[in-house]
Predict the structure.
Amino acid sequence: MSLLFQPIQFGTLKLKNKIVIAPMCQYSANEQGEVSYWHEQQWANYALSGAGLCIVEATAVQAQGRISYADIGLWNDLQRAQLKAILQKVKTISPMPFGVQLAHAGRKASTDKPWLGKGQIAQDHALGWQTVSASEIAFNQGDILPHALTIDEIQQVIADFATAAKRAVDAGFDLIEIHAAHGYLLHQFMSPLSNLRTDEYGGGFENRIRLSLEVFSAIKAVVPEDYPIGVRISASDWMDEEGGWNIESSVGISKALEQLGAVYIHASSGGLHAQQKIKLGANYQVPFANQIKKHVNIPVIAVGLITEPQQAEDILHNHQADAIGLARAILYDPRWPWHAAAALGEKVEIAPQYLRCQPHAFKELFTQFQ
């Protein structure tokens, strides 16, 4: 019996299998942070994939928190209404739960679309703005220095995360993931390489994780009781020699988040420093998930160059993680869960309109949505 196709519980939310579509920015919103037809067709595609859960792309809680001018947001009610309309359509074709990743890009904001160059756009440009961070330290040499957030501004960020969370619930999302990874604002406060503050949000470990914990608590306070909230972290800056954020720190914040009520930890890595030394390869981030899993009782999602069904199955079989996050693999093969079910001899639910497209030998592997 395949572990990948067994149910898993994220708090009160039960998934039919352990395949999670991880957030992937599409850079396809308009300049007001509003969704487009691209998102509608993309989410419908995810919904028909057979995965257990889809978490949609990083969604900014402030306009200046977008990675680029083409990112979606949840800082106003029009954005909420448009997201709600898409979700209502998508849920007519599939019972798959959808989550949203709430985010603030911090100093890595105000960029162009990746396929147009990735460079930071100057704040006096029509499509750019002043970036913010824990300290006045730029990500790339040549970037404009970010503004170091004041205490009042930090409190506003926390409040805006909470307000965006309320909108996410109203829009119909089944889960919220807090983005504290990949060198974005919460990660910038966590890492000693980007946080040189001397107030209560800087210095020692407890102070550097304070913002992430306060954001979690603020969201927890405004969503319905037992509403599931997970957190994505970068388990390492890949800058150990320079004293960056590391797995020991990640274990520490994971334990703290579990105490506050987090329903899972999504273990990615990197993105904080331009000189990071990532050792890429199959399963390269799985050891981080494995280490965190040893210290918490909530599920841990592994992600990163997991592309083959047996590879994902082995991670679960070896107790290295509790669920598998897929991003690029799903973009490349939107029916990855179908093919995984066939490879592992398991069943996956698909829309009845697709039942007749399956090869005769595999028909017993597929059932229609219940």
